[in-house]
Automatic annotation (TrEMBL):
A GO term for molecular function: ATP binding
Domain (ABC transporter) ranges: 29-129
Protein name per UniProt: ATP-binding cassette domain-containing protein
Organism taxonomic ancestry: Bacteria, Bacillati, Bacillota, Clostridia, Lachnospirales
Family: Belongs to the ABC transporter superfamily.
Pfam family, one: ABC_tran
Keywords: ATP-binding, Nucleotide-binding
Organism of origin: Lacrimispora amygdalina
Length: 135
């Protein structure tokens, strides 16, 4: 089922992220809250070291917040177990890294389709969506 236009796609409430190195705790995100509705466009800007990448890693399910909650299309991903988070990420989240790491022996199409294959879906069913000329 496709989310309704104008419904909340991303809801972040009071996110805190701390990193510990020995006895030193560095607070990277301090009480971050935001909402993004379906169809909205959001730009996250700030100086180097301000927590932009950390926030995106948390939103993408690649890291967990120290505290706070994240809901993506109504699903709370804040503290999902690793296996459930991996499945959710494969099925629902697309992420392009600043320094992306593609699998070198796969072509572009195969790299794009890889999450579908890992999820047990048939590549043939999705090739038409990726390339309308595929038959």
């Amino acid at each position: 089922m496709k989310p309704l236009a104008g419904s909340i796609a991303v809801e972040v409430r009071h996110i805190v992220k701390d990193f510990r190195l020995g006895d030193t705790i560095t607070n990277v995100l301090k009480d971050v809250s935001l909402q993004v509705k379906q169809g909205e466009f959001l730009s996250i800007m700030g100086p180097s070291g301000s927590g932009k990448s950390t926030l995106l890693y948390i939103l993408g399910g690649l890291d967990s917040p120290t505290s706070g909650s994240i809901r993506l299309n109504g699903t709370d991903i804040s503290h999902l177990e690793d296996e459930k988070m991996s499945r959710f990420r494969r099925q629902k989240i697309g992420f392009v890294f600043q320094f992306y790491n593609l699998i070198p022996n796969l072509n572009v199409e195969e790299n794009i389709m890889l999450p579908l294959l890992l999820d047990g879906r048939k590549m043939k069913d999705y090739k038409k969506k990726l390339n309308p000329n595929y038959s």
